[in-house]
Amino acid sequence: MQEHIALTIDGARIHAVKGASVLDTAMEYGICIPHLCHYPGLSDIGVCRLCIVENIVGGKSKVTTSCTLTVAEGMVVRTDTEKIRRLRRNIAELLVAKAPNSRAIQDIAVRCGVTNVRYPFQNDKCVLCGRCVRVCGEMWQAHALGFIGRGKDRRVGFPFDRKPDYCKTCNTCIDICPMTITPCIGPMKKGEERLCGGCEGQLTMTKNFTDSCVWCKLGEGFQCTRHVQMAGRP
Amino acid sequence: MGAKLKTFADLAAVRASAQARKTPATTVTMCCGTGCQASSSPRVAEALKSELASKGLVDSVAVRLTGCHGFCEQGPIMVIDPANILYCHVKPEDVPEIVGKTIRAGEVVERLLYTDPVSGKKITREGDIPFYRAQDRTLLGQNRWIDPSNIEDYIAIGGYSAAVKVLSGMSPEAIIEEIRKSGLRGRGGGGYPTGRKWEQCRAAGGDEKFVICNADEGDPGAYMDRSVLEGNPHAILEGMLIGSYAMGANQGYVYVRKEYPLAVKNTRKAIEQAREWGLLGENILGSGHSFDVEVARGAGAFVCGESTALMHSLEGKVGEPRPKDVHTVQDGLWHKPSCLNNVETWANVPLIINHGAAWFAAKGSNGSTGTKIFALTGRVKNTGLVEVSMGTPLRRIVYDIGGGAYDGVAIKAVQTGGPSGGCLPAAKFDLPVDFDTLAEAGSMVGSGGMVVMDEHTCMVDVAKYFLTFLQDESCGKCVPCKLGLERMLEILTDITEGRGRPEQIELLEDLGDTMAQACLCALGKTAPNPVLSTLHYFRDEYEAHINHKACPAGVCRALIRYAIDPSVCKGCGACLKACPHKAIRGRSKEPHTVDDTVCSRCGICKDVCNFDAISVC
After folding, report:
1. Does residue A60 belong to the interface with chain B, where contact is any CB pair within 8 Å?
2. Which of A77, B288, B294, B510 has the greatest number of CB atoms lying within 10 Å of its CB?
3. Which architecture characterizes domain A130-177 according to CATH?
4. Which pLDDT does position A89 carry in this prediction?
5. If you classify domain B459-547 with CATH, what class do you get?
6. What was the ipTM of the complex prediction?
7. Does B482 touch chain A (CB under 8 A)?
8. Which residues in B lie closer than 8 A to residue A70 (C-beta atoms)?
């Protein structure tokens, strides 16, 4: 039998399934926490750092990723404080400057309130969220993809950079990759990158973004509650 | 070696016989730590042994090859007891003279004595050297009396008596209480109270637990863990044995970098000996407690010094940190409760048990107790390992022990805590060095690196150097650390190359704060420290780089140029010949000039100029 415990997320008393993560619990209750590396059914490694929340323990707030934080009785979590919004915005800014050609990342940046990118765009193709590596290893048990190198040389690839026999060519890695959907305006060339914000831009390109949802491309894949509700509308 | 010890009385008997062993009249102590080995101390030791043999002095002179004494820049170091004469920079050729004069005739070889760079005087006795005298060498001082390959040396100075004390009658709770009362805090950098960690590990359920010694010391310029592990491995084993008994663990690991071959060798030898003597293994000294230790070698990743990354590496996985929402004392190595402590932390444990918590707590300042070893390097007269009570003012370390500025150029700052520590300006030198004060000042004790910098050091360049190191050593797993460091370095490169913009200072601070709060592990969280602390204390240097496109210290190549003073230049041609880029023009005996368009700002001309005619502007 499922056991439940009570915790508080953003002031709301919530009954969560014991053992669930704070991120899953919040999403289930319609509290959207932006996230990128988390994918339902895969292990959480807490690398994109977008789903950070404040976990308040004994009056002290601790910033931690909600995907790796397991719910506990009496836990008090804040997902949308001024501090968290600022940190999340800065992280999203780093991501979108690295990979502006992903609709998912552009959406997340908008959702997190990025209005101006202070770094030169790099137009890279991978942000190392590790979804492909985990889906390949954990879901398909193929282990055909992995991280290679350390630090600035870290990248995703096949063992010894050769496609192995045990790659089942299932293409799940491609389906799940946040880079595969380009922004609506199409791929941006080097030197022409910009913060897109075209999608539902009017809703979100304002200072007050707290309650806005861009119905993001990523949410579709995540079974984001709002996405499911809106899609289900006649 | 003796038979396996089965009872506490056996050990006491061995100790008594080791202490009563007839020692020859003269003992020559030769430092054979890695530092002195690099300056060929093994060859000196070899020469000494053969010289003693040829002169028939083998029975009357004992030679002890020890671990590091901490004064590596003077190596190889030789101390002759009982006269306590210290010779430095000893070469194999000096050995016959030392044997002939000092050992046989009791005379002092003047030229081998240490010269105090502050007073310029020769100092005969080891105990009179200011570098040593101003320290409290509780831990490091033991190295001097121990041949790390001989367990009897350690037993003779009271080794394993703390283990006997706990195994023969202290309850685990009492041990933890003693450690807690002593106020010992983790020496690896975090400063987490050791007693609390042990308590949590003991309280964590489960049938199997591990104790781990973190000897993956990777900070540039820091080598205190290596010296303790090389010179006194049994102290760590004893500390771990006590910890294992207190927490209920039966297996320990010493995780040491592959780059420390001597530490690996000495630790392995120590473990072997301890097993032979029955101080590790099943039913230690008849107490019923079993404990064994294995050495695991790290492959040289800085990030593996982080506890969770270290445990991943021990498990045979890629050394990457994981989120610590559940602490390693509950879910550590192979998902079992694991207690990881630094080398120095473990080495302090037997001392606390032997001398009592009050003795330990009496040293140090509020909140940080005991002594700490620092690796003092940079622009000071004396460099080496320095052990002082916690709470000693920075000024005392830099000026009294370090001897002050190396060549008269004023000291500007001290970088403490390794690459992820911070830079403290000279105005803050009265701060006591303890965990909380340094953290408040924007730096940290860290593992204990201390780099002294003078006016010829550019703080922006220093920040850039440490960031480059951290970027190389980051695992690259989490976004703020990987992308954040990349961007930070990009901005600093802009600044040092004259492309800086005023708004980038604010951006650096904003990004630094984000990394400090949102990164996955402690490496990422502390990575912006070099930038944030230099921005805090040396903001004017950043502003000079950005607003005036000038490097006040004359380091950043894009912002400086070399000029020859025509009134001083004699036209000797030394610079012209030395310049690798043929950037210097001029006829013989006429003042030369530097062609800026060709000059690469390497500074070779300035170094070779005989008349000091070349300056940076």
Report:
1. no
2. A77
3. 2-Layer Sandwich (3.30)
4. 92
5. mainly alpha
6. 0.90
7. yes
8. 325-326
